[in-house]
Design a protein that fits this description.
The chain is mainly beta and 97 residues long. Helices cover 13% and strands 43% of the residues. It has 1 helix and 4 strands. The radius of gyration is 15 Å and the shape is elongated.
Length: 97
Amino acid sequence: MTSVMDDIIGWTAFLVTGACVPWSGFTAQVNVSLKRPIAVGSYLKVVGRISKWEGRKVTIQSELVVGNEKDGAGAVHCTAEGLVILKKDVGIDATSR
């Protein structure tokens, strides 16, 4: 689950400028909290939200939830918070929004 959370944190941060710019930064920190096991065959949904943006630092909150009714839709299996540092040449910072 940790690698999935790292991936969603990175891709969500790549969208911070309003355009998806792959590899426009790097993950500096990921804190993952595993909540419950996932049953084989479950449909999952991964959600990433930008919670803070200060210059080149982007903080992302994410969660992994069950997506199908059979397994209890909406049950949270994993949460994470990550810090992504954008490259200097990305061009847009929080002060110019």
